[in-house]
Amino acid sequence: MGKKYYLFEDSSELAAQLAVDFKSAVEEKANSGESLTIALSGGHTPKAFFEILAEPPYREGIPWKNVIFFWGDERCVPPDNDESNYKMTNIALLSHIDIPAGNIHRVLGEDPPTNEALRYEKVIGENVSSGGNEFPRFDWIFLGMGDDGHTASLFPGAHNLKEMQRICVVAEHPETGQKRVSITFPVINNAKRVSFLVAGEAKAPVFKEILEKGSEPLPYPASMVEPQNGMLEWYLDKAAAPEL
User: Fold this and answer.
1) For residues 207 and 21, what is the distance between their CA atoms, to the nearest angstrom?
2) Beta carbons of 54 and 97 less than 8 angstroms apart
3) What is the model's pLDDT at position 131?
4) Fewer CB within 10 Å, N side or C side of the chain?
5) Which residue from 34, 132, 111 is spatially nearest to 123, judged by alpha carbons?
6) pLDDT level of residue 214 (50, 70, 90 thresholds)
7) How far is residue 229 from each of residues 131, 133, 138, 216, measured CA to CA in Å?
8) What is the pLDDT of residues 58-91, one digit of tens each?
9) Across the chain, where does the E strand assignment appear?
10) Mean pLDDT across the chain, nearest whole number?
11) How many Cβ atoms from other residues are within 10 Å of residue 8's Cβ?
């Protein structure tokens, strides 16, 4: 459906605009009596965004009962571990807002990874309506991008990049070997709206390659995000996208 690039002075300005856009998206859904299904990412940029949402006017001004939270990926650690994406989101946002507990679907990082990938797949399937194919169609998926071009927990060269049947897979960090649970490309590319949140000059070389991508495939998982019937957005700060 299309691709948009939004450029900001810095990550703070990026997070502030994203909060405005988020509020609009939730209100639009709430006005028609529906809920917004969202898959969150970890990282510094989303944290700044969550912290803004946890303050007025967003904290009281967003109809949180119309938001259903999932995570696009999670490290296989307990929810009180400092590496947990859930813990970061909970401290920055969830603990500050009035949202029904049933609207928060975290990955159980403390459980055996293979079991949890299967369980989480089922949870997503039961709570996110399908897009006319067998895959769930999220309203909005937030993604980060690593310096190596990975997104969610889909890493360059990993065998699960070609997974076309499953909703969730067990992934492994290429350097640390840490296990993670991640949604797959068929889910990401089935979403109505996918937004990369990318800040910092360390991301600039990979973003430049993706921006200038020709017909030849790139080794970066982030370059494989191409929603079939959805909008792809890049929220970028100037350090990450000096070309724009």
Assistant:
1) 23
2) yes
3) 81
4) N
5) 111
6) confident
7) 9, 12, 12, 22
8) 999 999 999 999 999 999 999 999 999 999 999 9
9) 2-8, 36-40, 67-71, 73-75, 140-143, 168-172, 179-183, 193-198, 231-237
10) 97
11) 20
Which 3 state secondary structure label does DSSP give 92?
Answer: helix
Residue type, 227: P
Gap between the Cα atoms of 48 and 69, Å rounded:
17
Instruction: Report pLDDT digits (tens) over 158-203.
Output: 999 999 999 999 999 999 999 999 999 999 999 999 999 999 999 9
d(CA 158, CA 138): 24
Tokens 């019937």 locate to 229
Instruction: Please name the residue that has the structure tokens 């969730």.
Output: 168
pLDDT per residue as tens digits for the range 125-153: 999 999 888 899 999 999 999 999 999 99
Q: Which pLDDT belongs to residue 59?
A: 98
Task: Please give the helix or strand (H or E) that residue 198 lies within, else none.
Answer: strand 193-198
DSSP character string of 220-239: -GGGG---SSSEEEEEEETT
Q: 2-237: which CATH topology?
A: Rossmann fold (3.40.50)
The DSSP H or E segment spanning 61 is helix 58-61
Q: In what order do the strands lie in the sheet with 2-8?
A: 2-8, 231-237, 193-198, 140-143, 36-40, 67-71
